[in-house]
Amino acid sequence: MDMLAMLEDHWWWLILAALLGIGEVLMPGVFLIWVAIAAAVTGLAAMALPVGISLQFLIFAMLCLIAVWGGRRWYAANPVSSEDPLLNDRTARLIGEVVTVTEAIENGRGRVKVGDGVWSCHGPEAPVGARVRIVGAEASILRVEPV
């Protein structure tokens, strides 16, 4: 009976691989697929070889490490281009925008209205109400120049 139970262990690995594959499709994060591949190979190895469950977990752990390492290397060599590379860089997205000075720029420091917020800025002297263009940013402080 123990041999029969050991031979059927491969189905659990293959089911796990299928569930992880489905999880990757539903929640794409390019990570679950590598673990799914490791589970599938472990299931195929358990199907072909009469190995105990502890050795199956060891095979799965080793394959997970190898698959994730290989996946990271592959994605490093083949980066996925973004349709919006500045998506998470708010200050870089503001470069080129024309904004209004809300607090006069004196001694190189002032504040400008950007959208519905007010940001600190560096730039040449400008009175309240003047229009300036954002030309750069240092952390959350915008660099501006007169329009």
Fold topology:
Elements: H1 2-7, H2 9-26, H3 32-48, H4 53-77, H5 90-94, E1 98-106, E2 109-114, E3 117-122, E4 131-138, E5 141-146
Parallel strand pairs: 3-5
Antiparallel strand pairs: 1-2, 1-4, 2-3, 4-5
Written description of the protein model:
- By secondary structure, the protein is α+β, with helices and mostly antiparallel strands.
- It has two domains: 2-77, no CATH class; 90-146, Beta Barrel (OB fold (Dihydrolipoamide Acetyltransferase, E2P)).
- Helices cover 48% and strands 24% of the residues.
- The protein contains five helices and five strands; from the N terminus they run αααααβββββ.
- The protein has a five-stranded mixed β-barrel.
- The chain is rod-shaped, with a radius of gyration of 28 Å.
Short description:
This protein is an alpha+beta fold and 147 residues long. The protein has 5 helices and 5 strands.
Question: Which key features would you list for this structure?
Answer:
147 residues; alpha+beta; OB fold (Dihydrolipoamide Acetyltransferase, E2P); 2 domains; NA-bd_OB-fold; NfeD-like C-terminal domain-containing protein
Rounded mean pLDDT score = 89
Q: What kind of sheet is the major sheet? A: 5 strands, mixed, barrel
Order of helices and strands: HHHHHEEEEE
Percent in strands: 15-25%
Q: What proportion of the residues is helical, as a percent range? A: 40-55%
Q: Indicate the low-confidence ranges by residue numbers.
A: none
- Spatial order of strands in the largest sheet: 1-2-3-5-4
Q: How many whole angstroms does the radius of gyration measure? A: 28 Å
Structural class: alpha+beta
Count the E strands: 5
What is the number of independent domains? 2
Shape: rod-shaped
End-to-end distance: 84 Å
SS summary, helix count: 5
